[in-house]
Design brief:
This protein has four helices and 14 strands. It is globular. The protein is of the alpha+beta class and 263 residues long. Helix content is 17%, strand content 33%.
Length: 263
C-alpha cells in the first residue's frame, strides 16, 4: 500500500486538463481549471472504499486547512474503483461522513481519470500558478515532500505536518505486506493492519468481537502497532457483502527485515 512513485515534472511541460461539464461537485459550485490560474492546485484521485485513500485523507484535510488562506486549492476527484463507490449518491454521502470540506468532483464516468491518464489510487498532482504540472505522486507517502512543494509554490515556510502514523515518517522501514485479496479472505497475513471493503447492512464478526456495517466503505478488521504476522479470522454476516480484504503497512519490529518507505 505504501509503494510510491514521486516525479518532479519538467517546468511548464504538461498543462492541467479541464474538468468536464455536468459532473456532480460537493462543497462548491462546479469549478473550471482555467479559472484556477494564479493559485496552486492539488488534485488527488481517491475512492472512499480504498483504505490507502482513507490513510492519505488526514493530510489532504490538513493541507486544505493550513494553506487555503494562502492560496492553495485542494480538489478531490472521486473515481470509484470498487462497485459500492461507483454510486454518485454514496460518494456524496461519504464526503459528508468523512468530514471533507474541500471541493470534491464525482468522476462517475472516469472522464477526468482518462484526461489525466491516471493509473491508480491514491494519485496526487500538484499544479503551479500557471496551470503547469509541478509534481506528481502515486501511492501513500511523501507527505512532507509534498507539503514542502506546496510551501515553495506559495512562498511560505513553516514546520510540515507531523506524521499521522509511524509508517508515514520519512525513512521509515516497512516490511513487505500481504497483497490485497478478493472477497472475505481468512488465513495468515503479514501487515500493519487488515481492512475489508464492505457494503450492505448487518454485523461482521472478527475473532471475539463484532461491529455493524450501515454504509458502504472500508472497515478495519485488525490493527497492530507494527508489522505483524497473524491469522485473520472474520466473517461478514447476513446482509453484508465483502468485495476485498486489504492490508496496510506497518513499521518493522526490531529484527524484522524491512525496506525504506517508498522503496
Amino acid at each position: 500500500m505504501l509503494a510510491s512513485d514521486d516525479v518532479r515534472a519538467p517546468e511548464h511541460a504538461i498543462p492541467a486538463p479541464p474538468f468536464p461539464r455536468e459532473l456532480a461537485w460537493v462543497n462548491v459550485s462546479p469549478l473550471r481549471m482555467d479559472q484556477q490560474i494564479g493559485r496552486p492546485v492539488l488534485v488527488e484521485f481517491w475512492d472512499f472504499c480504498r483504505v490507502n485513500n482513507l490513510r492519505t485523507l488526514p493530510y489532504l484535510k490538513a493541507w486544505h486547512e493550513r494553506y487555503a488562506d494562502a492560496g492553495l486549492r485542494v480538489i478531490g476527484v472521486h473515481t470509484g474503483g470498487f462497485a459500492p463507490a461507483r454510486d454518485t449518491e454514496a460518494a456524496v454521502a461519504a464526503v459528508a461522513r468523512l468530514g471533507i470540506e474541500y471541493p470534491v468532483v464525482i468522476d462517475e464516468r472516469l472522464e477526468i481519470w482518462d484526461f489525466y491518464g491516471n493509473e491508480g489510487w491514491p494519485a496526487r498532482y500538484l499544479w503551479d500558478q500557471q496551470g503547469a504540472l509541478y509534481s506528481m505522486h502515486y501511492g501513500e507517502g511523501a507527505y512532507q515532500e509534498t507539503e514542502r512543494e506546496i510551501q515553495a509554490l506559495l512562498g511560505v515556510e513553516r514546520e510540515p505536518l507531523a506524521p499521522v502514523r509511524p509508517e508515514d515518517a520519512e525513512g521509515a522501514l516497512l516490511p513487505a505486506q500481504t497483497p490485497d485479496q478478493p472477497g472475505a479472505y481468512t488465513g495468515p497475513y503479514a501487515a500493519g493492519g487488515a481492512w475489508a471493503v464492505l457494503e450492505g447492512t448487518g454485523e461482521v464478526r472478527v475473532g471475539g468481537r463484532s461491529f455493524r456495517v450501515d454504509a458502504p466503505g472500508c472497515y478495519p478488521l485488525a490493527e497492530h502497532p507494527h508489522h505483524t504476522e497473524a491469522v485473520l479470522d472474520w466473517e461478514p454476516g447476513p446482509g453484508v457483502t465483502s468485495h476485498a480484504t486489504c492490508f496496510t503497512p506497518g513499521v518493522a519490529a526490531p529484527g524484522d527485515p524491512a525496506r525504506p518507505a517508498g522503496g
